Amino acid sequence: MKLRGIVAGNLRRLRMAKGLSQEEVAHLAGLDRNYVGNLEREQNSPTVDTLERIAAVLEAPAVELFREP
Amino acid sequence: MKLRGIVAGNLRRLRMAKGLSQEEVAHLAGLDRNYVGNLEREQNSPTVDTLERIAAVLEAPAVELFREP
Question: Any idea where the HTH cro/C1-type domain is (chains A, B) (predicted)?
């Protein structure tokens, strides 16, 4: 499985577990409101810094975004 | 520990375990010859796609780059 796909799936899982919308996560992480949706559709290749900010919003260790399902 | 630092440490550890130089990893991953050195000095924020290519060169699951030491 491509790493983008792993990140997309984990991002969606962690986001929904927190009961947050894509726009709420994007806003809290200081990102464009469509960016989280693009990540969940594997349309972008996010940087380490961006994913660290998203993990902080989701209150999850960053490594959780990279675990194989 | 910042995610850049975690990636830098794991990259160096995995690279040395394979007995590869920074330039060899950069070449095999199709990156600028100085890029891997920059990553190990936490000077860049690499993308998911770039780290996937580096993990493939190091013959390690990508998640290994993100594990806390």
Answer: 11-65
Tell me how far apart the 2 most distant CA atoms of chain A are, in Å.
29
- To the nearest 10°, report the CA torsion of B12, A54, A39, B29: -10
Tokens describing residue A34: 């469509």
Partners of A7 on chain B (C-beta within 8 Å) are: 48
CB B6 within 8 A of CB B69: yes
What one-character-per-residue DSSP string does A32-51 give? -TTHHHHHHTT----BHHHH
pLDDT digits (tens, 9 = 90+) for B10-36: 999 999 999 999 999 999 999 999 999
**Looking at domain A3-65, which CATH architecture does it have?**
Orthogonal Bundle (1.10)
**Contacts of B42 by beta carbon, 8 Å cutoff, 6+ apart:** B2, B4, B5, B8
Complex ipTM, two decimals?
Answer: 0.93
Please, are residues A10 and A64 in contact by the beta-carbon 8 Å criterion?
A: yes
- Which chain B residue lies closest to A5 (C-alpha atoms)? B48
